[in-house]
Amino acid sequence: MKFTRFTQGSSIYSGVIKDDSIREIEGDIFGDWQFTGKTFSSEEVNFLAPLEPNQIIGIGANYVTKVEDRPSELPEIPVFFFKPTSSVIGPEEEIVIPEGIEQVKFESELAIIIGKEAKNVPESEVLDYVFGYTVGNDVTAPQFFHQDGHWTVGKSFDTFTPLGPVIETELDPFSVSVEARLNGVEKQNSATDLMIIPIRRMVSYLTKVMTLKPGDVILTGSPVGAEFVGAGDLIECEIKEIGTLRNSFVNQKEHSKTY
Ligand code: MG
Fold it and tell me: What stretch of H or E contains 207?
């Protein structure tokens, strides 16, 4: 099932999308919800990020180029970081390059959406706690990484976490490829078996540290091929089974909103 959030006029709706038809739902997608009976055509709505995350956790440097390059021993402490929920935007929204720099990096990623409270979950049970998956773009300004190793500022600007277009609940995360096209040219395309720390290990580890909650988003890392981009560039992050997350880049001073 593909869950979506969207606007029509000034109202925000949630729905389940199939082909070009969206059936409105009401309630909590992680709990009780029902169809309202109202339907929309996808052509007459504007899509939003498919959820308002509870929190967003990313993992750094998590892909190799080929399977043989995966390390035989996994790092004892994975490189996790948080991104603020205020950095989330939806499909087709503009990514704003902060004042003072010319370029930022795109990072196409498989994003896990947690559906149930999870604490001390063994690897074998991790998928029972996953609600679904979306596509994320972990936009990054390495110019703002702190020399002591802190990434927070460089990953936290408003608009730096596009998510969407939908949450797919029926995905096999082990059989998909994470892709990115820059101005129509393929830059990233890796199967998820090129992850260094695999999904079950990643989520299980996190639940030994912190309680994960419904609506938590885990960005699982970006394949080799992320590049610097500037104003006017168009990035399309795609996982075929979920959809395409398309955003363009603008400079802060050209952006219509005030940040
Ligand atoms: Mg990343």
Answer: helix 199-209
Which is it for strands 243-251 and 94-97: parallel, antiparallel or unpaired?
A: parallel
Q: How far is the CA of 201 from the centre of ligand 1 (A)?
A: 17
Distance of CA 168 to the CA centre of its chain: 12
For residue 139, how far is its CA from the centre of ligand 1 (angstroms)? Answer: 7
Per-residue pLDDT tens for 203-225?
999 999 999 999 999 999 999 99
Domains of the chain are: 1-48 (2.30.30.370), 51-257 (3.90.850.10)
Annotate 129-197 with DSSP letters as a single string.
GEEEEEEEE--B-GGG--TTS--HHHH-STT-EEEEEEEESS--GGG-EEEEEETTEEEEEEEGGGBSS
Instruction: Kindly report the average pLDDT of the chain as a whole number.
Output: 95
Distance 105 CA to ligand 1 centre (A): 10
What is the Å distance from ligand 1's center to 203 Cα?
Answer: 16
d(CA 224, CA 86) in angstroms, rounded, equals 27
How many angstroms does the Cα of residue 230 sit away from the middle of ligand 1?
18
Q: State the distance from the centre of ligand 1 to the C-alpha of 47, rounded, in angstroms.
A: 23
